Amino acid sequence: MEEPLDVIPIERTKAYDGVYHVLGGTLESSTEENADITIPQLLERVKNENTEEIIIATNFTTEGDVTALYLKRALQPLSAKITRLARGLSTGGDIEYADDMTLRAALTNRADV
To answer: Cβ(23)–Cβ(42) under 8 Å?
Structure first.
């Protein structure tokens, strides 16, 4: 999660029964550095705990995407499954009004019916 308040909507879904790690921000797209975010602590937790899966729940912004890519690369050697929240159309949304990136993500992340 990027920020502490990001936990609340996930909790409201009652679809996740696991442990959270709040990063406290994102990496800047130009530097991939930020002293305030807790990536080293996350890596240490994954090394020391029996972590089966890491769900990267960053926002779908440039900074969120950069952070997710950095996390994926940093976490791969630790042998836990790495996933990211899916992108796509929101429930109740009209395809007619969706932007190109949202439609592309919805097509890319489509699931069997």
So the answer is: yes
